[in-house]
TrEMBL record:
Species, as recorded: Gibbsiella quercinecans
Cofactor(s), by name: [4Fe-4S] cluster; FMN
Name of protein: NADH:flavin oxidoreductase
Location of the FAD/NAD(P)-binding domain: 359-552
InterPro entries assigned to the protein according to its UniProt record, in alphabetical order: Aldolase_TIM, FAD/NAD-bd_sf, FAD/NAD-binding_dom, NADH:flavin_oxidoreductase, OxRdtase_FMN_N
C-alpha cells in the first residue's frame, strides 16, 4: 500500500481482499528493526494494529499473516537511522536506478546475532496477537538473501564461504523463532531461486533452499523473483504485461519436486483462476498467491467459486496505478479499479442509495467514459454512452495491437460485458453535438472526449518525408523497410508503443527524445523492458535533443551543448508531443446552459488511473448530496 502504518485505509484494503474470498491475507513487509522500515513490527503489535487486522480478516473466514523483513543494504533509511549507514553480508556496492552508488558495511558477528534476535523478537510479538502466521522475507534482495546469495555473500567466516555458511543466518533465524514461539504461528518464507543468471548458481540456490526446508522449521515456502537493488531487479520482481504469466513456475517446481515436506506457494502474474488451477494440477505448486490480480478485482476468488470467471476484472499489467504510485511513496491504486486502495472512502461515501435516478449521457468511450457509464448505471441511473468511433476503448483500441500490450483487449471486453449487463445504451459511430444533446433532455452530461495530440504545422514544410502523430502511426500500416524517426517530448508509453509497433511491421526506427532518456515519465518496471526490447531490435536512441526548424530545415538541437546537427535521413517522422484536453464540446455545453462535467484527459491529459477515477467519482456524485472523497478532487454534483 505504501509507507506508513496500519491505518484505516490499509485495514480496509486488506479486509476487502478477505471479503472477496482470499484464503490468506499476507501484509506487506514489516520491519523487524525500527531503523530500517516504514512498518515496524514492535509498534504495530503493541498498538493493537495486528489484532484489528486479524479480527477483521477472520470475520470473512480468512487467515491473517504478517510478512517480516530486514532489507539490509536495500533499506530506505528514516530519520531515526544511526549515521545512515547501510549494512549487508559483505560490502558489495549497489546502485538503485538513478541513485548514487551505496556501499554497505559488512555486519560483524555480534550484529548478525542481533539480527537473529530482531527476527525472533518480532515473531514473538506477533505470536501474542490474533495473527495466524508469519512469512519471513528470504527474497527480493533483502538481508537474508544477501547472505544466501553466492554473488553477494563474500564472507570467509562461519556466515559465508560455502553453501552451509550462506544458509546459516536463515536457519538460525528459524531456529530462534521456533525456540521462542514453537508452533503458535504458521511460519513460512518468501524465497528467490532466479537471483543469479548462471544456471549452476540457480541450481546451487535451489539446493540451499531445499536444505533449509529439510530442517523442518518451515511450514511453507513462497517462490518469487527479482530484487530492489537495481532497476532491472524491480522490473523482474514486479513484471509487467510483457513477461509471461506465472514466470517463476519452473523455479517453484524445482522445490516441489525436490521435497515432499511442505507446500510450495507460487507468486508472479498468476492472472486467472484457470491458470491457477492448471499450475496446481500440473505440479508446479500447491498454492498460488496473487497481489495485483486482487488489486484489480478483490472478488476474483469468490467469482471463481461461483463460475463467474468472465466477470473478473482482469489485471492487464500496465503498472501505472499500482507499482508506479507505490514507487513514488503513494498508496496503491489501480488503473481500472477506481476504488482500489480507497475502500474506506468507498464504504463511507458510496453505500447509501442515490437520492434520485437521472438520465445521463456520457460522451466518449475511452477509460474515463467507460468507467463513468458503467458506474452510473450500477448506481441506478439510466445511461447512454456515445462515441464517434465504432468500437469501445478510445485510445485503448489503438494500442491493443502493439506487441506486449494485447492484454488491453481483455479490459475492453470486460467493459463491454459490464455495460451490457448494467443496461447502458450504446450509441457508437455517433458524432454527437450540443443541439442533439439538448433535444434528448438529459439530466446530466459527462464529457470524456479525451486528449488531442499536438502537432507542429511549421515542421511540414521543412521535412521532406511524411509527418504523423503517434495515433496516426498506429492506425496507418506503413510500408515495410521504411526509415522512421520517432520524436518524443511527452515521455509516456505512447512513443515507445509506436516504436514497438513499427519495428514489428518491418520498419527501421530511430528514437529521439528531448528528455534525459526514453520513457522518462514511466516507472522502470515498464520502461526498462520496453527500451531493452527495442534496443535488441536495432532501435537507436538519442536523448537530450530537440527538433527545431532552422533556415528551412528540420535540425536537432543538443539540449546540453545547444549545437545544431542534421536530422538523420528518414522517410517518416512520428511525433509524440505534449497533448491538450479536448474540451470544445464541454465549453459549448456550458455556453448552452447544460448541466455538464468534464472528466479524464478531456479535463487535463494525465493517465488511465486518473481518468477512470474521475469517471467513477463523477458517476458516484450523480443524484447525491455533495461529498468530498478522501485525497480526491471535489466532484460537481448534478
Amino acid at each position: 500500500m505504501g509507507p506508513g502504518t496500519h491505518n484505516e485505509d490499509l485495514l480496509s484494503y486488506e479486509e476487502r481482499r478477505a471479503q472477496g474470498g482470499a484464503a490468506v491475507v499476507i501484509t506487506q513487509a514489516n520491519a523487524v528493526n525500527a531503523q530500517v522500515g516504514d512498518f515496524f513490527v514492535g509498534k504495530e503489535a503493541s498498538s493493537g494494529k495486528y489484532d484489528q487486522l486479524a479480527n477483521r480478516i477472520h470475520a470473512h473466514g480468512a487467515l491473517s499473516f504478517v510478512q517480516i523483513n530486514h532489507p539490509g543494504r536495500q533499506a530506505h533509511l528514516g530519520p531515526n537511522a544511526f549515521n545512515e549507514v547501510l549494512y549487508s553480508s559483505s560490502a558489495v556496492p549497489q546502485r538503485e536506478y538513478g541513485a548514487q552508488v551505496r556501499v554497505p558495511r559488512s555486519l560483524s558477528h555480534e550484529e548478525i546475532l542481533q539480527v537473529i534476535n530482531d527476527f525472533a523478537t518480532a515473531a514473538e510479538q506477533i505470536a501474542n496477537t490474533a495473527v495466524d502466521g508469519i512469512e519471513i522475507h528470504f527474497a527480493h534482495g533483502n538481508l537474508v538473501q544477501q547472505f544466501l546469495s553466492p554473488d553477494l555473500n563474500q564472507r570467509e567466516d562461519q556466515w559465508g564461504g560455502d553453501a552451509a555458511g550462506r544458509n546459516r543466518l536463515a536457519i538460525e533465524i528459524l531456529r530462534e523463532i521456533r525456540k521462542r514461539i514453537g508452533k503458535r504461528l504458521i511460519v513460512g518464507a518468501r524465497v528467490n531461486l532466479e537471483l543469479a543468471p548462471q544456471e549452476d548458481a540457480q541450481s546451487e540456490l535451489t539446493d540451499q533452499i531445499l536444505t533449509i526446508i529439510d530442517t523442518g522449521l518451515l511450514d511453507y515456502v513462497s517462490v518469487s523473483g527479482g530484487n530492489f537493488s537495481s532497476g532491472w531487479g524491480v522490473a523482474t520482481n514486479l513484471p509487467d504485461a510483457s513477461f509471461p504469466p506465472a514466470l517463476w513456475r519452473n523455479a517453484a517446481r524445482k522445490l516441489k519436486q525436490g521435497q515432499t515436506r511442505i507446500p510450495i506457494f507460487l507468486a508472479g502474474r498468476v492472472l486467472t483462476p484457470e491458470l491457477a488451477n492448471r499450475l496446481i494440477s500440473e505440479g508446479y505448486c500447491d498454492v498460488v498467491t496473487m497481489a495485483r490480480e486482487l488489486v484489480a478485482d478483490p472478488d476474483l476468488p469468490n467469482k471463481a467459486r461461483r463460475g463467474q470467471d468472465k466477470e473478473i476484472r482482469p489485471c492487464v499489467g500496465i503498472q501505472s496505478g499500482c507499482w508506479q504510485r507505490v514507487a513514488d511513496g503513494k498508496p496503491i491504486h489501480c488503473a481500472f479499479n477506481p476504488v482500489a486502495g480507497r475502500e474506506a472512502d468507498e464504504r463511507d461515501n458510496a453505500a447509501a442509495p442515490i437520492e434520485r435516478a437521472l438520465s445521463v449521457a456520457v460522451i466518449g468511450a475511452g477509460p474515463a467514459g467507460l468507467e463513468a457509464a458503467r458506474s452510473a448505471a450500477l448506481f441506478g441511473h439510466k445511461v447512454t454512452l456515445y462515441d464517434r468511433r465504432h468500437a469501445l476503448g478510445g485510445q485503448l483500441t489503438l494500442i491493443e495491437n502493439v506487441p506486449h500490450r494485447q492484454d488491453l483487449r481483455k479490459i475492453i471486453g470486460w467493459f463491454e460485458r459490464e455495460l451490457k449487463t448494467s443496461g447502458v445504451i450504446l450509441r457508437l459511430g455517433t458524432d454527437i453535438d450540443v443541439k442533439t444533446l439538448i433535444s434528448q433532455q438529459y439530466d446530466a452530461v459527462l464529457v470524456a472526449t479525451g486528449g488531442l495530440e499536438s502537432f507542429r504545422p511549421d515542421w511540414q514544410g521543412v521535412f521532406d518525408g511524411q509527418i504523423l502523430t503517434v495515433n496516426e502511426a498506429l492506425t496507418q500500416r506503413l510500408p515495410a523497410t521504411q526509415n522512421v524517426l520517432i520524436y518524443d517530448e511527452w515521455g509516456g508509453r505512447a512513443a515507445l508503443s509506436a516504436a514497438e509497433y513499427l519495428i514489428a511491421h518491418g520498419n527501421k526506427v530511430t528514437f529521439i527524445t528531448s528528455l534525459t532518456y526514453a520513457g522518462e515519465g514511466l516507472n522502470n518496471t515498464v520502461r526498462l523492458p520496453a527500451v531493452s526490447r527495442l534496443a535488441r531490435s536495432g532501435v537507436a536512441f538519442l536523448a537530450e535533443h530537440q527538433l527545431q526548424a532552422d533556415n528551412g530545415q528540420l535540425r536537432l538541437r543538443n539540449s546540453l551543448s545547444y549545437q545544431l546537427t542534421m536530422l538523420p535521413a528518414a522517410d517518416v517522422l512520428v511525433t509524440s508531443l505534449i497533448p491538450t484536453g479536448n474540451n470544445a464540446l464541454y465549453e459549448a455545453l456550458l455556453d448552452a446552459g447544460v448541466t455538464t462535467q468534464i472528466i479524464g484527459d478531456a479535463r487535463s491529459p494525465r493517465g488511465i488511473t486518473e481518468a477512470t477515477r474521475e469517471g467513477y467519482l463523477a458517476a458516484r456524485a450523480l443524484g447525491r448530496t455533495p461529498v468530498v472523497a478522501r485525497s480526491d478532487l471535489n466532484i460537481l454534483v448534478v
